[in-house]
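Notes to self after the Tuesday call (sharing in case useful).
The group wants a holo model before anyone commits to mutagenesis around the pocket. I volunteered. Ligand is WT7. Logging inputs and output together so the record is complete.
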Amino acid sequence: MSNYHIKHLEEYYQVYRKSVREPENFWEEIAEEHFIWSKKWDKVLEWDFSKPEVKWFKGAKLNITENCIDRHLATRGDKTAILFEPNDPNEPAENITYKQLHIRVNQFANVLKENGIKKGDRVCIYVPMIPELAISVLACARIGAIHSVVFAGFSSTALSTRINDSDCKMVITADGSFRGKKTIDLKGIVDEALESCTCVENVLVVKRINSDIHMKEGRDKWLQPLLDKASTECKAEIMDAEDPLFILYTSGSTGMPKGMVHTTAGYMVYTAYTFKNAFQYRENDVYWCTADIGWITGHSYIVYGPLANGATTVLFEGVPSYPDFGRFWDIVEKHKINQFYTAPTAIRALAKQGTELVDKYDLSSLKVLGSVGEPINEEAWHWYNDNVGKKKSPIIDSWWQTETGGIMITPIPYVTPTKPTYATLPFIGIQPALMDENGDELKGNQVEGRLCIKFPWPSIARTIWGNHQRYKETYFSAFDNMYFTGDGALRDEVGYYRITGRVDDVIIVSGHNLGTAPIEDSINEHPAVAESAIVGFPHDVKGSALYGYVILKDAGESRNHDNLRKEINQIITEHIGPIAKLDKIQFSDGLPKTRSGKIMRRILRKIASNEMDNLGDTSTLLNPEVVQNIIDNRL
Ligand code: WT7
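Result:
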């Protein structure tokens, strides 16, 4: 266990230096000591960012579920692997031990096989936060099928786009889901999505809300009766280190989402190692990440990272506001949570409620608080630190991305002194660089630029499903021989990093990554709309909210504007999901454009954020006159 747990800052620097000077030796030692392999690698790393191509543990053979489940059976068989906390606080929590998880994953894996799924097939998982979500993910991994989890808050159009893009043969879903007081008709959404998917042969349906749903003959099957008949043994498929483990979609600068492909060995090694160190997880701790498994945070730090360490990981079905805004704290007290990982948007929403509810519960079990998904503002940081952590649990503000697979920049709790709004130091093995607009690296401290990574780390996404060219253009073309993150960052006088936000056309709303293009494409489908542009503006709970500028066709001019606004948000909800709805919609006569016809979002962003005094030079625009008109009609 030599270099698995980092204990003090000096050790961090020591291990960090080794990980950078001899990355191959460093990761080889971790991989040797802490995982089980059917065959060891022939070569630790092979890479070329100009292609781009990255291979870790080349030639190794393994199955990630043997590392996440089987190898714990002898020593941790009766330990809780997954602790399920239902939406309704009166429904009992469920403890799934490692032994039980083994049985349930095997049964599920056998059902997949009996329904025609084999190694390499893609399976779409559209399941709410119930145990079957984690189990279906692991069941795919058990047999070498590639899972593509789609967040169960996405609309039918978003779902069908993702199913078709990766040619999924099967969809796993539920009759419906509970969300606070509401239920959501998931199966109805799947049925609608599948009207435009010919690749799907079977749909397996988990019974969760007991609703009366339509089951299509020959396609749809209830899961439970199949599980009941399935064998509890399923030999793990032996996978190559670089075989795809999963696809997870993230927004991009065009309408089509990017199916990020993560492979097996590197992803396993990195998520396990970061989990252990970034959360300082100790045996018998109870760890809770409030994210949904539909996002990368859930993949890496609810399922794979924790289970690879034999941890107890909480899976929460509900929302922070149900039955009241004390629910998170109620769960912390009830399950004696030691590590708690959530998003700034949740912290801000809870902070708005005051301190009465957070003071009502015993939070003394907490040792580490985490934040992820967007920059955490100073006020939220202090509220979290003072009222949740009682100034004794370090906050780890962890920066990373769907594409990076695991945490990249973060304090190590009790090791790295924290600083509000700073993600602080690169994690072991991570070599960040700040670049200026000319493509030169900004050396030294007290600099600000575009955040890149110079050297591959084990869990970097290897490609975009079906579109390697787009992968290259998006991440490896802005700067030579570097992975470009899309974020801006600064490095302070001691070398701490602060993420300053996206520098591309991605807007983060409540921690959800939204591309402007897909939203604009949906709006433009409204028959009365000629053109539109979306920008972000500051919002006290969501971090950023969406502001839309819409130009109407003649036919729309006479329509009631409030009705049009509702219809536009309705279209967005249908195409993407409610998370992408616009907070403000301004109808405008034109959009500021450059002479080459590109929308100048910078100006629109400033107007939406009420920063009209520094719009910069607008005289070079094709149509400078529209700017004043937009300002005059600002909402
Ligand atoms: C983008 C990635 C990583 C899991 C959740 C989001 C922003 C993420 C932080 C942070 C400032 C952050 C970045 C990044 N982001 N964490 N701690 N501080 N910004 O994954 O949906 O792929 O979004 O989220 O802008 O690029 P994602």
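Two things stood out.
The longest strand covers residues 529-539.
The pocket of WT7 is lined by residues 250, 295-297, 372-375, 397-402, 423, 485-487, 499, 502, 508, 513 (CB under 6 Å).
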